[in-house]
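Here comes a specimen:
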Amino acid sequence: MALLNAELTGIAKSNIIPLGSFMPIWAAVDQKSHQPLLLLMEECVAATTPKLHPDDQVYPLITNKGCLVESQRGNSVFLSRYHSSSIILYLQSFRFGLGQEVYIHCKLVAWDPDLLDTTKKACYYSKTKERWELLDSPERSSICSCCASNCKTRSKRQTDNEPEGLSYRSVVGPVIMVEQSDKDKIHF
């Protein structure tokens, strides 16, 4: 995972993010000789620590097995994919940890693109359509309807016969979100 620049052409040169602006967070998996893999962000939280501990205060960004809850509060979205093995979370900055170092912690899952369901998905809330949308197949957005409540996990019996996918925890940061007027005062 990495923080991209505003043009999405490379790694960001600054980790100072003015409040309300966007932080493009890119994640990718190297497919090598594997079958096509779809990279999903199953869970992401913001925290003021580089390592998560049970008593840390966190700000949920993606919950419920791939639901971008931050898209309901702000204007965050998943950008259209250029390759199935990568994903860009276009995250609008937020007040949590304002002025402090903030780390984005995510659980990434590489999954079979043909097996999307309520437990393996990338959904965001479309304010114009007033509903949850599936990034990869908008016509199948019904699997995102559980984002408004609770997306049930697979039963143990079902997972015995199905691929598990590959999961990995990753962290981006620190980023420092500042009020617009403070941006010019901080130099790194």
Remarks:
- The two ends are 21 Å apart (CA to CA).
- The longest strand covers residues 166-178.
